[in-house]
Amino acid sequence: MAGHSKWHNIQRRKGKQDAVRGQLFTKLSRDIYLAAKEGGGNPETNFRLKTAIERARQNNMPTDNIARTIAKATGGIQGVTYEELMYEGYGPHGVAIMMDIVTDNRNRTAADIRHIFTKRGGNLGESGCVAWMFKREGQITVHRGDYRGTVDDLMMLALDAGAEDLREEEDAFIIVTSVEAFNAVRTALENAGVPIADAELTYEPQTTVPLAGDALDQVLDLIDALEAHDDVQNVYANVEAAEA
């Protein structure tokens, strides 16, 4: 759900990549692993783990895989140890890119990601080089077709729970929260019976680079290559699809 705005609208090829079952399960497993390692193996008291498990189930990940991953993270089973990192860089045409990384070998991952950038006209930067262009926020998605109330009802419920904004898209409502209010807003919506399609913390670009045609394709090719790497969990970019 990286952005759910101009960036969300040009994620045209991600579905094709996520259809690669093994690769998708790898990313989902790492989400679960890190959530359980950070906050324990009980999804009722670990909101991040609950969200990761829900996403895994939505993508038909076997229950045994989920349980085994939680056991590895909490010490019940010996396994590989992962760490979370944030990589930053520039794509073609000055587009800022940030990546959530989960790896068991940071030297290997850095070399791989640097090669992907260089091969496609970008460069992997230092920590902090583009982070200032993004805002960390919570985004909760409610599909229009699933919600039976009015947009005013949803907005008032979200704002009363501490949300900052509600954005309307063609097929969904995006409720925006601060990082601190994210859990409270989601819980309030769930308790009110609002059908939540997705909910996560993301990075929203504060300024965008409008591109079209070949220039846009060059940036999307880089993003596709980054997303295809097993160690890249999420990619955030400040590119905007402009009219040619």
**What Rg do the Cα atoms give?**
18 Å
By CATH, the topology of the largest domain is Alpha-Beta Plaits
CATH architecture of the largest domain: 2-Layer Sandwich
What count of domains describes the coordinates?
Answer: 3
Main location: cytoplasm
InterPro entries: Integrase-like_N, TACO1_YebC-like_2nd/3rd_dom, TACO1_YebC_N, Transcrip_reg_TACO1-like, Transcrip_reg_TACO1-like_dom3, YebC-like
Pfam families: TACO1_YebC_N, Transcrip_reg
Protein name: Probable transcriptional regulatory protein SAMN05421543_10844
How would you describe what is shown here?
With 244 residues, the chain is an alpha+beta fold. The chain folds into three domains: 8-73, Integrase, N-terminal zinc-binding domain (Arc Repressor Mutant, subunit A); 83-127 and 207-241, Alpha-Beta Plaits (2-Layer Sandwich), CATH 3.30.70.980; 133-205, Alpha-Beta Plaits (2-Layer Sandwich), CATH 3.30.70.980. It has helices at 14-18, 21-39, 47-58, 63-73, 106-119, 151-161, 182-191, 213-227, and strands spanning 83-90, 96-103, 123-124, 134-143, 165-168, 172-177, 198-205, 209-211, 232-237, 239-241. Strand 1 (83-90) and strand 2 (96-103) form a beta hairpin. Helix 6 (151-161) packs across helix 7. It is globular. This is Probable transcriptional regulatory protein SAMN05421543_10844.
Short descriptors:
single chain, Alpha-Beta Plaits, transcription, 4-stranded antiparallel β-sheet, 10 strands, 244 residues, Arc Repressor Mutant, subunit A, globular, 3 domains, alpha+beta, YebC-like, 24% strand, Transcrip_reg_TACO1-like_dom3
